[in-house]
Amino acid sequence: MAAPNPVNDRAHTAPPRSPREVAPELAELGDLTGIAPTDARDLTQVLLVRLAGLEEGTREYSYVRASLVELNLSLVRFALRRFGSHRESTEDLMQVGAVGLIKAIDRFETERGLEFTTFAIPTILGELRRHFRDTTWAVHVPRRLQELRLTLARAQDALSQTLDRAPTVAELSEHLGMPQEEVIEGLQAANAYNTDSLDLPAGPDGDGPGALAAKIGSTDERLGMVEDLVSLQPLIAALPERDRLILSMRFTEDLTQSQIGERLGLSQMHVSRLLSRALAKLRQGLEAA
Asked: How many CA atoms lie less than 13 Å away from 223 in the CB half-sphere?
């Protein structure tokens, strides 16, 4: 049986340190969001080094990590300005950006000697882009086209500043080094990002009479009937006169087979056979056309 180790026992049972002991720099600061940017950057570097020496999951680790998040929320607000206005609330987007900030804190390697902002801003932007890409499309499109839309949007911004006008498909294709067909596909996919209600007023400025839905055409099922009638005309003309008369009385005058038989002096069964034979000829003629 192994002998007890008093050193390990003391370490295991030692009480957790208070926040003041873990990060004395924070004791007198109060609200971390009001710290000047320069001071916040310097304190962030100190706390990141301190965090790297703490055990994950402990109270001390959580305290320093939460302090780093509070200290750098301004980075999230800065990243949000890159995306302009959106339909989602700023509070919801701040939460998404905060997730990116936490990921940056957890993944940052102090020994590499980088500025935290250099690493954090791209991580926060990436989290926001994934959120917009995956949750704000009005119509679901493949991930490839969602990413292509972002690439085209950046290229359009860059070329618009250079050319002082909107770039053409050919210019976008040359700038990005991709086929024009792929550029067109990405531009078409961008139309699925936002949709308008069909109840909106019609017109270019939304001030036209009536709703937009009233201006949208629909398939007229009667067009197919017109095509069938045009195709049937020569086939009906080729039928014997009696067959044409029976068809007219059945489908134009809407007479029953018994009523047709009374007019023509035929039995109902005979009329049924003649009608079936005429319809079969017409069907065969349409299928062969």
From this structure: 3
Residues 6+ away with beta carbon under 8 Å from 56: none
pLDDT in tens, 108-166: 988 888 889 989 999 999 888 888 766 655 556 667 776 787 788 888 888 888 888 88
What is the maximal distance between C-alpha atoms in the chain? 121
**Token digits for 289?**
């056309």
The residues near 196 (Cβ < 8 Å, ≥ 6 apart) are 212
Q: Which token pair is 199?
A: 């109840």
CA dihedral 76, 77, 80, 84 (to 10 degrees): -170
Separation CA 63–CA 27 (nearest Å): 12
Domains of the chain: residue spans and CATH:
16-135 (1.20.120.1810), 137-194 (1.10.10.10), 236-288 (1.20.140.160)
